[in-house]
Amino acid sequence: MSSNETLAVALDRATALYGEREAVADGDTRWSYRELEAKVSAFDRGLDDLGCQAGDVVGVLALNSAAHLVAWLAIPRSGRVLNDLNVRLAPAELEFILNDSSTKVLLVDDAHRAIGEQLEQLCPGIKHVVHLGATEAPAGWRSFAELTGGPGRPAAAVDPDAVAGIFYTGGTTGLPKGAMLTHCNLVANAKHALILLRYDEADSYLHAAPMFHLANGASVFALTWVGGRHVVIPSFDPGLWLATVAQEAVTRALLVPTMINMVVNHPAAGDTDLSSLRSVVYGGSPIPTAVLTAAMRLLDADFSQAYGMTEASPLVSSLSPEDHRRGAAGEEPFAGRLRSAGRPIVGVDAQVFGPGGERCGDGEIGEVWVRGDNIMAGYWKREEETASALDAEGWYHTGDAAYRDADGYLFIVDRVKDMMISGGENVYSTEVENAISSHDAVLECAVFGVPDERWGERVHAAIVGKPGAQIDEDMIVAHLRERIAGYKLPRSIDFHDEPLPKSGAGKLLKRVLREPFWSGRERQVS
Prior knowledge:
- By secondary structure, the chain is an alpha/beta fold.
- Keywords: Ligase.
């Protein structure tokens, strides 16, 4: 890395330049940057008192809150490693991640108190649990108020190449894998976000997407660096989102297309003052043109699409507000570009390569490879998967099949890796297939994405039962609810009497199963 910057610089700068400016608005909780820095530095010292050293992993299981924001800023500050957990995961998935990452301290809010108590028993590596809630902490837990109430300390020196966070993503092997993002990676991504989104001290960003998602995390350090204001709601709700934008004069927001559709169709949408909103970033999947035009009319803000992935911290490319304005008006080539993932952002190199490692020409389909200071250090304790994802020249092989047009716009057409994106969430087929196959009545199954107007793609399963076994959709869904997150559950299931189609080598032919659903569509993903 060309500089010695670590994540601590963002809050240090904001406190020095904007100390009395409001930094956080979370319901009745209002902190200036000086007060936020005091909470963060005190929490840093509090982790010292728990015996949590540089390199130790600290997990967070919580909805969005001011305390959750403190965790993002405090945990990596002096060299500890943030492990922000997807709150939608099933207990068995959370248990695996906490044990796999050797998480030492776990932060839990009121909404996840019961599962926190369960995980404390299931994960012997957890030495302390910190209660982020407003209620009294359970016996044996420390409280957030206790850890942030004492004196702070300066940030310890940290190597910019040290891991700042482990962010777990689904795995093609069926087990989640943790992408190791360094200070260098996340600082680079913050700079990329600032160039792309042009945040400044007058901005108020609404944390409505979950904080555990890097899509939202991309703005945590970027906005802090320029002294912007963090407006926080616990989770996305279209009515609450609309009311908060109006009440807090929110200028910036990030949503996935399904959320945008819910906002546009909410009964209060037309009667809410949304004039403060300057820009909306969306990602996860392209937005249907009808939803986009309705949202642009309602919100009167700049729209941009961001394409990325956990392994890239996460930003890779963006479709600009001008592309959206002119595309929504039906002007070509902009209308056609609404189906694209835009062009690589400043600081990131994204190219399309063929199977032999040769660069593809315009319009030629290959795999997207990405490199830059934002690319992960590798997967936690997964040397084989790291070696297959990162090559010697620093390219990350994304697993997304795409082509570039003559103007450098990336068009994602399929996924090399067996993954779906449903409502902005990554779902790996193997994880769902493993869970289905563990049912005694299942002989074989295949899981894949099919088009869905609301979710972009929905998870679909094709199942063959064992001879003589009684099996139905309710039985399968009940079985899965104990094993995987709700958003990974199949939303539709076909039961087959005949074996699923296979190649001569015995390999399952999912493309044959997918074909009836995607027939006539240019893209094989949504």
